[in-house]
Amino acid sequence: xxxxxQDPGPFNVPEGATVAFNCTYSNSxxxxxFWYRQDCRKEPKLLMSVYSSGNEDGRFTAQLNRASQYISxxxxxxxxxxxxxxxxxxxxxxxxxxxxTFGKGTKLSVIP
Amino acid sequence: DxxxxxxxxxxxxxxxxxxxxxxxxxxxxxxxxxxxxxxGQGPEFLTYFQNEAQLEKSRLLSDRFSAERPKGSFSTLExxxxxxxxxxxxxxASRFPRDDEQFFGPGTRLTVL
Lengths: 112, 113
Description:
The complex is a heterodimer.
Chain A: E1 4-6, E2 11-14, E3 19-25, E4 32-38, E5 44-50, E6 55-57, E7 60-65, E8 70-75, E9 84-94, E10 97-102, E11 106-111
Parallel strand pairs in A: 2-11
Antiparallel strand pairs in A: 1-3, 3-8, 4-5, 4-9, 6-7, 7-8, 9-10, 9-11
Chain B: E1 5-7, E2 10-13, E3 19-24, E4 31-37, E5 44-50, E6 53-57, E7 65-68, E8 75-79, E9 88-95, E10 103-104, E11 108-112
Parallel strand pairs in B: 2-11
Antiparallel strand pairs in B: 1-3, 3-8, 4-5, 4-9, 5-6, 7-8, 9-10, 9-11
């Protein structure tokens, strides 16, 4: 089982749609969770951190369920500019270790 | 300082040659990371520096790979005797000690012919 698994893409949605991405992780000792966004041929950039209480940033809502080892990202009112690959990322740190593990990413295309 | 920079941006080499990539992190960031990304995959961790100390290496980092950060500022990643399977995007990232966010550079795209 892969450490971080995401919905296989691509997701093709019309402008204005709501889209949800799911992610599961295998290491129950993971401490922090993130969604990164990666545009085509560009570097990944942090979209938002994910907290157990859930957090929202404008049209984006992230949720974490530690018991189920599940992370989600909801995008409301999709814009053309949301088209990108969304990477689910899990942090595990310990003595001398600080490692981010990335999922394969889910590609989103928002269509006019 | 506008962010993490990497050089070169593209490198084409023949199998068996050695290549070296450079990463300049954001100046206040003492943590530096190297990742490899192939098409359709997320970035895969290679190695991690805290200042000049290399604290962690992935099993992906075979003995043909070596990374250094001699003065705790810029870092180099060298691949010796390149193989076609080394073709990938090599990404560098840095972070401030108290923050979790890693800032990525634009990457070096390596093509081994």
